[in-house]
Amino acid sequence: MNTSTDRIEKQILLKAPRSRVWRALANAEEFGQWFGVNLTGKQFVAGQSVQGNITYPGYEYLVMDVLVERVAPEHHLSWRWHPAAVDTSIDYSLEPTTLVVFELTEVEGGTLLRVVESGFDQLPPARRDEAFRMNDGGWGQQMTNLEQHVAKG
């Protein structure tokens, strides 16, 4: 992890071809299987929003809402969202979003996946540290989830 308070960086070597990792990221329904969100019948298309109910135990009351920024098949997927938006009594729509970028690189032995979420320093000070802490831990868990998912084939 970078020591910056503005960005979270994680990377993992996945023992799978880039095309397999891409499918796990870019197919919204498959993404939802490992990420813990119901995105059945949805697609990641640049410029469009995608929403789905969280399926992760304890967070089922939440809706994930992302605005897809860029899709470059087998190389790059990025979106904007409101990180750690877990209090349903708060309207997060007035807050700045963070940018989540997935980058795939073919390497010997598989695919190197790099995930960077940036923009935390623009969040309201009252929730900046908690959002960073929650997402830092969350991305670590999601990398493990993805690794297990692609290992199944």
TrEMBL record:
InterPro entries: ASHA1/2-like_C (IPR013538), START-like_dom_sf (IPR023393)
Taxonomic superkingdom: Bacteria
Residues in Activator of Hsp90 ATPase homologue 1/2-like C-terminal domain copies: 15-150
Pfam families: AHSA1 (PF08327)
Family: Belongs to the AHA1 family.
Name of this chain's protein: Activator of Hsp90 ATPase 1 family protein
